[in-house]
Design brief:
The structure holds 2 protein chains of 2 kinds. Chain A is mainly α. Chain A has 13 helices and no strands. In chain A, helix 1 packs antiparallel against helix 13, helix 8 runs antiparallel to helix 11 and helix 9 packs antiparallel against helix 10. By secondary structure, chain B is mostly helical. In chain B, helix 1 packs across helix 9 and helix 2 packs parallel to helix 5. Chain B is elongated, with a radius of gyration of 23 Å. The two termini of chain B are 28 Å apart.
Chain lengths: 317, 283
């Protein structure tokens, strides 16, 4: 790796760190604007003014906002996520198991979606303009244009209501067998896989078609190579960078999808925890969940950009 | 000697010609626009009134799209919901694109540190996942229609900025801009008279795409219970209200989703089928 690539990559990572600071500021500021005094809300209606004042002091609520922001940031960095307002449990304990559940969901989705999407993306580029390509394209525009909950409701209607193969809710708690496990995960995974595959197929197809425009592909065509050989041997190796970029970017769509999917299937993941925390206005919990999501998202899109930089052959020598 | 080619006969009065898909999707969009404007005048039943004691009824000649979880007429609620979904999204996308495009052109024309700082800031804002941003802001401030509109506009303005800036930077290097600048024209003139007309086509296409994103995000937020609040309901809230009917396949769940889908798919297809002349005017 030469110094130019290193400089670009470090620059990109630097931008991500700055973004992270801005993001954390936005998250903190937005939750600070909550109307009403937290101490009063926590103590309820019967609280004496002295008790409220004491709690405000104990929670450092009288400090200037910038000081509280810095203290909160320091806590995040050292793994101290604070205490939930709703039930006085440590936020880290609340999040722990839920985060693992969500990561399982994301991993299962990626394992199914990535190979399928790559296959479809490459083959549609290979047979561009054919009936197969056009059918897939119409389906993709359909999936991209509709809200995630429509795909989830359609999945429930088809698999749970009409075919009666799967339960409508994802009850992870009472899994006792492999079939139980599959039944619990099937519906959320199918929905998420459809949502992110659509993006991934579209971007993969675009990346392969872009490399098919290169002069060396024309050379291969003139040499008499088959369409298959042209795509697999000549175009694909050069499209790896953009394709990995596309995969990482599409995986970042998991985030938006997971919020809807966990809600609709009642899946005990971190997104469901966060949506519930919004309804109980549990600020420390919302802040921590939001930061975890933002970090995951930023890591994915930074990874996508870094791969794009490193795969640029013009920078390699 | 100058030959003036006669305009091809196939061109319509506006100089552009849409294909069949373009015309079809335009009709769907027009249909929802009319519904959004005249909605309350054409509902078969008052949207908030319980008209049947059976809830989650299937489609029938009396209630065309069935009834909801309280026994209200779903068709009427979808017709009135169009106002919220289309109205809020349209206002939000107008604010987002106006602010984004104006700042984008300004950054391109001004250049220097103003451009660098603004671009970095917008890049940072783009990297915040949209649904999460909406969730956090609405959790913090509470959900009302002005808050929703502003939140949606703030989320999608940076994208409009980046798109318009990239186009404007290209136009900015062209001779006619240099000439105008040498003439001593001000930035406002350069933006309005020299740059905007040359990026308008792609910017309008981007406007349409952004409208779709906003409709989807608004529906998603409403579905989570953070968007339009009861007793009012946009299409996303209608899905949320009736989600209990999903396990017996009530049309009350599916129909509002289908309403969203017809609108967003139409806008997407319309943009895909716009004449190349409008989409790629800058090239």
């Amino acid at each position: 790796m030469n110094s130019q690539i290193l400089r670009l990559v470090l620059g990109r990572v630097g931008v991500t760190l700055i973004t992270l600071v801005i993001v954390s500021f936005v998250v903190f500021a937005a939750t600070e604007m909550l109307p009403g005094d937290v101490a009063e809300i926590m103590l309820g209606q019967a609280a004496t003014p002295e008790a409220v004042a004491g709690l405000r002091e104990a929670m450092h609520l009288n400090d200037p906002a910038i000081l509280r922001f810095l203290r909160w940031m320091l806590g995040l960095l050292t793994g101290d996520l604070g205490t939930s307002y709703a039930n006085n449990m440590r936020v880290a304990d609340l999040i722990g198991g839920r985060l693992v559940n969500t990561l399982w969901l994301a991993a299962a989705t990626a394992i199914i979606a990535v190979p399928v999407a790559l296959f479809l993306g490459i083959t549609t580029a290979m047979y561009r303009g054919s009936l197969y390509d056009r059918t897939i394209n119409v389906l993709i525009v359909g999936v991209i244009s509709v809200p995630e909950f429509l795909i989830a409701t359609l999945a429930v209607l088809v698999f749970a209501v009409w075919l009666r193969w799967l339960p409508a809710l994802s009850l992870v708690a009472d899994i006792d067998s492999l079939t139980g496990l599959l039944r619990a995960y099937a519906m959320p995974v199918i929905t998420l896989a459809v949502v992110i595959s659509a993006q991934m197929i579209r971007m993969t197809r675009a990346a392969v078609i872009e490399t098919l425009r290169a002069p060396y592909v024309e050379m291969a065509l003139l040499k008499g190579a088959s369409r298959r050989r042209m795509v697999l041997r000549h175009a694909l190796p050069n499209a790896i960078g953009p394709i990995v970029n596309a995969v990482a970017l599409s995986l970042s769509y998991l985030l938006g999808g997971v919020i809807i999917v966990e809600t609709i299937f009642n899946y005990p993941g971190i997104a469901k925890l966060m949506v519930d925390a919004v309804s109980t206005r549990d600020l420390p919990l919302i802040q921590s969940c939001a930061m975890i999501f933002c970090v995951g998202y930023l890591v994915l899109i930074t990874l996508a950009d870094v791969v794009a930089i490193m795969s640029n052959p013009r920078l390699r020598h | 000697m100058v030959h003036v080619a006669p305009a091809p006969r196939s061109r319509s009065r506006f100089g552009y010609r849409l294909n069949a898909v373009g015309i079809g999707t335009m009709l769907v969009i027009l249909f929802w626009a009319i519904i959004a404007v005249f909605g309350p005048l054409i509902t078969p039943y008052p949207p908030g009134e319980i008209v049947d004691f059976n809830y989650f009824m299937p489609m029938s000649s009396q209630f065309w799209l069935g009834t909801d979880y309280l026994g209200r007429d779903i068709l009427s609620r979808i017709i009135v919901g169009a106002r919220y979904t289309v109205g809020i999204s349209l206002v939000a996308v107008c604010i987002a694109c106006f602010v984004g495009v104006t700042l984008g052109m300004l950054a391109a024309v001004t250049g220097g540190w103003f451009d660098s700082v603004l671009s970095r800031l917008m890049d940072a804002l783009i990297s915040i996942p949209s649904k999460l941003f909406g969730l956090v802001v609405v959790a913090g401030i509470g959900s009302s229609i002005p808050v929703l509109i502003l939140t949606l506009a703030v989320i999608y303005a940076p994208g409009a900025f980046r798109f318009a800036r990239a186009l404007a930077v290209n136009v900015n290097t062209m001779d006619f801009v240099t000439v105008a600048r040498a003439r001593g024209e001000r930035n406002a003139y350069l933006m309005r008279q020299e740059i905007l007309p040359n990026i308008l086509g792609p910017v309008l296409a981007d406007f349409g795409l952004r409208f779709v994103f906003i409709v989807l995000l608004l529906s998603g937020l409403s579905f989570l219970g953070l968007g339009v609040q009861p007793p009012n309901a946009d299409w996303g809230s209608l899905v949320r209200e009736n989600i209990g009917g999903l396990s017996f396949g009530a049309p009350a769940v599916l129909m509002p989703s289908i309403a969203i889908a017809t609108l967003t798919i139409s806008v997407n297809l319309l943009i895909d089928n716009l004449p190349v002349k409008i989409r790629d005017r800058s090239e």
